[in-house]
Amino acid sequence: MLLSATAERIHHKTLLCCLVLQGSCVLTIQLSDEELGVGVFEGEDVELFLVLTGSTQRHVSSVLRLSRDTLQLVCPAHDCCETVVVTLCWADPHGLVHQLASEHMCFTQDLAFDMAHFLVGSVGHADMLEGVLLLDEHQIPLQECERLDQSLALALAHLTPPPGLNLLGNNPEPQETLLHFAARRGLCRVASFLLQQPGARDALALPNKQGATPASLAHSSGHRALLELLTQ
Fold first, then answer.
1. Which range, of 7-16, 41-50, 198-207, averages the lowest pLDDT?
2. What is the DSSP string of 195-208?
3. What are the beta bridge partners of residue 82?
4. 67, 94, 139, 154: which has the fewest Cβ within 10 Å?
5. pLDDT for 30-89, tens place per residue?
6. Mind listing the domains of the chain with CATH numbers?
7. Contact 182, 214 (CB under 8 A)
8. Cα dihedral across residues 148, 149, 154, 158: positive or negative
9. pTM to 2 decimals?
């Protein structure tokens, strides 16, 4: 059984197939002639599923059969960086489960996950987010912003927020918030996630030290879709 992953956030740094912790990457399974020789795949109604076993979590996922020797699934999120055992199983008509093949896969942490940790940790510490403003001195290409929006929103959603997290922290004074961060860069998915967090409505109305609210930043930066999201 050969595993391969297709996503922009996948890194093949070792001989193992590596996936990011937040999951949502497409995992393709290529079966060998020996595995196909078992005869399981002759029937179209055979139920196949994949079991990913780590040290603290076990995931069970159904698989899509693309062809006789190729299977595919969307990889689930995992709770820590580690190598997991990936087992392909099938269920017979009597409900008995059989193991067909086994392989190893590595969950790793990517840049988006590191950035999500930093951003969540910056809540209530305006000086940390103000340091990120240096990024604005360099125009980030639109395509890169779209990739960042997708991967960062996924990473933020996967993080376990600290108890009592509030987008304003404990400081109601003018400051750069996470919504300001998203508005400057047109990160619609990130902003949508943030708007569901405690303190979001107050953060929407809060200006930074330059007097700009998240909505006014989105407007001045030409991010129309985000402006509509922030003002609806």
1. 7-16
2. TTSTTHHHHHH---
3. 107
4. 94
5. 888 777 776 665 655 678 889 999 998 899 998 888 887 888 888 887 777 788 898 988
6. 2-108 (2.60.40.10), 111-231 (1.25.40)
7. yes
8. positive
9. 0.59
